[in-house]
Amino acid sequence: MSSLAVAPARSFKRFVPVARLGGSLVRRNAPLRRMLLAALVSTCGDRLHQVALAALVLGMTDSMASAGLIFVVSTIPYALFGLPVGALVDRWNRRTAMISSDLIRGVLVLGIPFAVVVNLPLVYALLFCLTCASMIFNPARQAAIPDLVAPDDLSSANTLFQAVSYLVDVIAFPIAGILVALLIEQLGFQRGTFVVFGVDAISYVLSAALLSGLPIGRAERDAAPGPLSGLASQVAEGLRYLCGNALLRTNTILLTLGPLLLGSLHTLWIGFAWRVSDTGTFGYGVIETANALGTLTGLWLLPRLLARLNTGRTILLGFGVMGTAVMLAGASQSLPVVAVLAALCGLGNMTFLVPSITLAQRQAPPALRGRVFAVRLMLTFSAFSVSNALAGGLADSVGVSQLLLLLGGGMLLMAGTASLFSSAREAV
């Protein structure tokens, strides 16, 4: 079994100087630097098209349910194909899997503005296919990170990837909100969104080029993949390991319940911007930017929290902060107030997400990482799908603010209940 699976609890005081440690890690690790740059490029394109897609669907339908369906369709493939994909990722060359996924996604996003002209359901079909490609890329990347860095650098590496993603949000969301509004106003929905999705397609191609030189392969480099007839037994092996490891099992349950409650938050931020504060594209961009700033603050605070709290208590604190912020957002109609609360949501999100990823990377042996992460992603995104399927309709019927109050309270209840279990509270 890999040392990652049995690594003893190390002092997290070594993780405290995250800026210095992370910067040193990037300077001395060229493959990690390439992967981070690829993430930076593709995330810039993604954030631009995320705003465009929200404006496009809500502008065409004036329905929160239709807007929420974007997130539902984007998560269904994880529920349908998550288990076999994890086993396949462990069999395939992970670099090839990531490059192929990027190129496929680049082609698919180009089709979205054309699909709008035909009919809206075709847009959802393309989003479904786009997610199928992403669900190969994501576990392959998470499983590959431990191959590029030493075990002691895992926390720093995961923090860097999250920091890149949300640093892009700080820059890209306000620009995207203004740019998308101008393009749609000047060129119309079809031509304006074609420009946006074209930029996203180019970002995927650039990401694939950057990933092409990574020194990573299959989970077991010297072993050729076995016949597909053994796929079911490999899936079962991954499930048995996850269920048999108390720390992984408990953390996976929390990472399923959390998105079930607040996986619809992006949908509800759309609802707040258009329905509650009447600020539209500008308000949505402000909220997402504030969320990103809170996320970066959370990444800065995280090593200091881990120096004082164990992993389990840090994760539970993150859930509690996020639940409190969402409840308070439901009691306000002010964009500035909700922007501050969205920042707290981002802070709480990183406080439970990064330690959870690192915990799984340490606990899962290399040959099973793809399956472990795929199962976790399958459960998480299935919860996202259910959450958004319900939230869109509920927001139309009971109101966005009331729903925020209820869901925030549910998150607080979940965190309090989980604190009673040692496998959650004392996880390391």
Key terms:
disordered N terminus, 428 residues, mainly alpha, single chain, 17 helices, Growth Hormone, Chain: A
Fold and architecture overview:
The chain is mainly α and 428 residues long. It has a single domain (29-218, 231-425), classed as MFS general substrate transporter like domains (Growth Hormone, Chain: A, Up-down Bundle). Helix content is 83%, strand content 0%. The chain is built from 17 helices and no strands. It has helices at residues 3-6, 18-28, 30-61, 64-73, 76-91, 94-118, 120-148, 154-211, 231-244, 246-262, 265-276, 280-306, 311-329, 335-363, 369-398, 400-418, 422-425. Helix 10 (246-262) packs antiparallel against helix 14. The chain is globular, with a radius of gyration of 21 Å.
- Tell me, what's the shape? globular
> Helicity level, as a percent range?
over 70%
Rg, Å, rounded? 21 Å
Q: Total domains, how many? A: 1
* Number of strand elements: 0
Q: For this structure, what is the CATH homologous superfamily?
A: MFS general substrate transporter like domains
CATH structural class: Mainly Alpha
Q: Distance between termini? A: 19 Å
**What structural category do the secondary elements indicate?**
mainly alpha
> Mean pLDDT across all residues, rounded?
82
Beta percentage is: under 5%
- Contiguous low-pLDDT stretches (5 residues minimum) are 1-21, 220-224
Query: And the CATH topology?
Result: Growth Hormone, Chain: A
